[in-house]
Design goal:
Layout (H helix, E strand, L loop, with lengths): L2 H6 L2 E5 L3 E5 L13 E5 L1 H11 L3 E9 L2 H12 L3 E8 L7 E4 L8 E4 L10 H5 L8 E5 L8 H14 L4 E4 L10 H13 L3 E5 H8 L5 H8 L5 E5 L5 E5 L2 E5 L12 H14 L4 H16 L11 H10 L8
Parallel strand pairs: 1-4, 1-8, 2-6, 4-5, 8-9, 9-10, 10-11
Antiparallel strand pairs: 2-3, 6-7, 11-12, 12-13
C-alpha cells in the first residue's frame, strides 16, 4: 500500500460524527447571549468540509437522528459539498450531538451534549455497505471508537479499507466525556493507532495513550515504526512529524485567536490536501498549521475552514511560521 498514492486520489471516505454547533457573537458569553448562529460541527464532518473546500472529495459515514436536528446536519453537509450517501437516519431516542461554544479565548466556555449520541449507533452493516475501492483513503477521528456499536463498526471499516488497499488516517481526537473510562480509551485508541498509516494527535493525546504526557513523544516514535506518517502536535511550540525515516520539526503561524476550537480538524484537512497536491511532508504540515491558524481567528468551525484563495491570501500576508522548538 502506498500512502501517498492513496491520498493523492483526493477522494476520502470519512467515518464519524456530524453535529450542530451554536455560537454567539464574538466576545459574548453563552449565558448572556440572546442570539446564536447555527452551523455544522463534529470532528469528522469538519474534516470533510475542510477537504472539500480545499478542492478534494469527501463522503461521510455516520448515523443522524431522524428529526429536525438530524435533517439540519444533512442539509449542512450538502451545503459544504460532502457526499451523504452513507449518512443514515436512526429513530428512537438517539440524538445528534450539540455543541455550544464561545468566540473568545479569555474565559472561553464550550458545552457539549452527547447523551444518546446518534453517531454511536453506526453499525457493521453500515460500513459493510461501502465500496471502498471508490476512494483513495479512509479518515476517522478517535471519538468514533468511544462506544458500541460504533466502535466495532469502525474497526470493521479499518479492516475493509485495508483489504481494499486504502491507507488509514487517524486523528486521535481524545474527548474524555465520550468514554466509559480512561483505561478503555487508552487501550482502544492505541489499538486504532497500531492499525493506522497516518496518525495525528497532540502531546496530551499521545501522552494519554502512553500513560503520561512525559512519555507521549516516545509513544509517537513507537507508532512511527508501523505508520508512514505520525504528527505530534505541541500547540504554540509547533509539531514534530515522523515520516520517511526523519523527524521533521515545524513551527506555527501565530494569529490573534478568536477561539480555541476547530484547529485540529482544519489542520487535518490542510495536511491531507497538501499531500494530495504532491507537497513534501514539511510543506504539507505547514499548510495544515496555516489552516488551523485561519480557523481559530474566525467564528465557527466548518464555516471558518479556508478555501484555496484564503490560504493564498494568508501566506501572502503572514511573515511566516515560527522557528520550531
Amino acid at each position: 500500500m502506498d500512502v501517498r498514492q492513496g491520498i493523492a486520489k483526493n477522494r476520502f471516505i470519512i467515518v464519524g460524527r456530524v453535529g450542530m454547533d451554536l455560537f454567539p457573537a464574538p466576545g459574548e458569553a453563552v449565558e448572556t447571549a440572546d442570539q446564536f448562529t447555527a452551523d455544522m460541527g463534529g470532528s469528522s464532518a469538519n474534516i470533510a468540509a475542510g477537504i472539500v473546500k480545499l478542492g478534494g472529495q469527501a463522503a461521510l459515514v455516520t448515523r443522524v437522528s431522524d428529526d429536525a436536528v438530524g435533517r439540519f446536519c444533512v442539509n449542512k453537509l450538502h451545503h459544504y459539498g460532502v457526499d451523504t450517501t452513507h449518512v443514515k437516519p436512526i429513530g428512537g431516542e438517539a440524538r445528534n450531538s450539540l455543541a455550544l461554544y464561545e468566540s473568545r479565548v479569555q474565559g472561553h466556555q464550550s458545552v457539549i451534549y452527547r447523551n444518546g449520541a446518534a453517531d454511536f449507533q453506526m453499525t457493521i452493516e453500515d460500513v459493510e455497505a461501502i465500496d471502498y475501492t471508490a476512494y483513495g483513503a479512509l479518515v476517522t477521528a478517535g471519538t468514533v471508537f468511544a462506544a458500541e456499536p460504533s466502535r466495532t463498526a469502525a474497526f470493521r471499516a479499518f479492516e475493509l479499507a485495508r483489504a481494499a488497499g486504502l491507507p488509514i488516517i487517524f486523528d486521535v481526537d481524545y474527548r474524555p466525556y465520550s468514554w466509559p473510562s480512561p483505561q478503555v480509551a487508552a487501550d482502544v485508541l492505541s489499538r486504532a493507532g497500531a492499525m493506522s498509516d497516518v496518525i495525528v494527535g497532540n502531546d496530551d493525546e499521545f501522552g494519554f495513550m502512553a500513560g503520561g504526557k512525559d512519555r507521549g513523544l516516545a509513544k509517537a516514535r513507537d507508532l512511527a515504526k508501523t505508520a508512514a506518517i505520525v504528527v505530534y502536535k505541541m500547540g504554540e511550540f509547533g509539531a514534530i512529524t515522523f515520516a520517511e525515516n526523519a523527524e521533521i520539526k515545524t513551527g506555527i503561524y501565530p494569529v490573534s485567536a478568536l477561539k480555541p476550537t476547530g484547529a485540529g480538524d482544519s489542520f487535518m484537512a490542510g495536511l491531507l490536501s497538501g499531500i494530495a497536491a504532491g507537497q513534501d511532508i514539511h510543506t504539507a504540515v505547514l499548510r495544515g498549521s496555516a489552516c488551523a491558524a485561519i480557523v481559530v481567528a474566525k467564528p465557527g468551525c466548518a464555516p471558518a475552514m479556508p478555501y484555496p484563495a484564503d490560504l493564498t491570501k494568508f501566506f501572502a500576508a503572514h511573515p511566516g511560521p515560527t522557528q520550531p522548538k
